Amino acid sequence: MLHAVIMAGGSGTRFWPASRRNRPKQFLTLATDTPLLRMTFERLGGLVPPERVWVVTTAATADASRDILPELPAGNVLAEPVGRNTAACAGFAAHAILSQDPDAICIVLPADHVIGQEERFRSAMAAGAQLVEREGGLLTFGVQPTKPETGYGYLEVGQEHSRDGEWAVHHLQRFVEKPDLERARRYLESTRFLWNAGIFAWRAVDLLDEIGRQLPELAEGLCRLAEAIRSSNADAVVAEVYPTLPATSVDFGVMEGAQKCWTVPVDFPWSDVGSWSALAEEIPGDSSGNHRCGRVHATDSRGNVLVSTGPALSVAGVNDLVVVATPDAVLVVPKDEAQRVKEIVEALRDKGWDDVL
Fold first, then answer.
1. Which CATH superfamily is domain 2-271 in?
2. Residue range(s) in the chain whose domain bears CATH number 3.90.550.10
3. CA atoms within 13 A on the CB side of 229
4. What is the tens place of the pLDDT at every residue in 43-101?
5. How far apart are CA 104 and CA 2, in angstroms?
6. Quick check: helix, strand or coil at residue 296?
């Protein structure tokens, strides 16, 4: 019984001002007319039926998630009162799924990535799921690098374990933090390093066993949530317990120390669209290399990312900028410093400008 868990709790601050507290990145229509969350759900079509798709999101966006995905049973949208990183998210979902299916196999994936060649995506997911069903352990999917990327974490691939059709399953050697440019170039030249896509497969019981072994405090809190999931006071228990859970990623908190860990190298087009500048890879450029979305005009300007969700936006004589206009806020930043948008959001929060956050 294959289930899918869509992690949709991120705040998406790097996409301010389009992204807000109650409309984070996964709810935006970037490069298409379809919200990223909906695209992620549709990508699973033919692999996992809607009744076995689960979404973990914030309490503030749970209703919006149900509106975007009306095919899901209402109880399949799990609301986190606060974000406690991906280990808590994945464990929370695993307990909810096990309450219905004690033999569940889970594909776990972010809500806000852009993936091409969706049939190959589904084929790779199925191969990973079959491996963990047969042999247990925790599995992550790694993307073959196409450039020396400093914004992604990497996976170091170990010895090949087996093959499932065209997909090879390797032992996972280690997780690698985001590298500097020189190391990223070496990783690209090597055949041993993959981009960490943040997509996983495991038996739900195996994930919880590893959490229990490595993160006992988290395991204890998750068990309290599990006991309450089907009770009449579930919401009150979640509101009380969830903020006390340790915040750690499933990558480093669980998988790095797992007793059995696998990776499947994949080659389908993939991007986490981590900043406005990355959007240039998803929106075709014009003859001047400007990537435009909305009511936008550019004169004598090159290499810009120009987005408007409200007013008419016009630029002249500017190069390599990100300019984003919404009805109540405007962002202007050099394209190669687009990651600094997160700093801007923090500064606006310190100023108390909550009306634009």
1. Spore Coat Polysaccharide Biosynthesis Protein SpsA; Chain A (3.90.550.10)
2. 2-271
3. 22
4. 999 999 999 999 999 999 999 999 999 999 999 999 999 999 999 999 999 999 999 99
5. 6
6. strand
